[in-house]
Amino acid sequence: MQCAAWGTSGSYRSRVTTCARSSSIPVLLLAGLALSQFLSDLLGEKYASAALVIRALTMTGLAFIMIHVGFEFHIDKTQLRKYGWDYVIAFTAATFPWVFVTLYFVLVMLTGVFIVIVNRLITGVPEKPAVSA
């Protein structure tokens, strides 16, 4: 598989550096995933304090990435309609799985509860509390 940077202009050294960076990202992600599975066993009692440091470093790194993504983001105001359509596509891609999973759980997994909820919503009558003797 060839790196996408090979087809771009620029010096050979910059293309190799770009390919090395883009190839190292999945390797580092997989190494972090594998290490995270064994970290609690390796650190033992020190895991709680290490987890706090790891969370802080992770959030700092994530903030760094998001800030630099923001630096690269430029809006071409002549194509606002295209951005609106992109928003609709992104919204549906993010929302539909949640809607479908929720409907599955409500309609399939909790069928009896679903009927009770619908009846309460339609009639507007709350369930009567049980009278204890």
Description:
This protein has helices spanning 12-43, 47-72, 80-109, 111-123. The protein has a domain at 75-133. It is mainly alpha-helical. The N and C termini lie far apart (75 Å).
Concise account of the structure shown:
It is built from 4 helices and no strands. By secondary structure, the chain is an all-alpha fold.
Please describe the topology of this protein.
Layout: H1 12-43, H2 47-72, H3 80-109, H4 111-123
Kindly state the mean pLDDT as a whole number? 80
- E-strand count: 0
What sort of overall outline do the alpha carbons produce when their principal axes are compared? flat
Going by helix content, strand content and strand pairing, the class is mainly alpha
Compute the gyration radius: what is it? 26 Å
State the order of secondary-structure elements, H for helix, E for strand. Answer: HHHH
The total count of helices amounts to 4
Low-confidence runs: none
The level of helicity is over 70%
Strand proportion, as a percent range, falls in: under 5%
Summarize the main sheet. Answer: none
Distance between the termini: 75 Å
Question: What descriptors fit this protein?
Answer:
single chain; 133 residues; mainly alpha; 4 helices
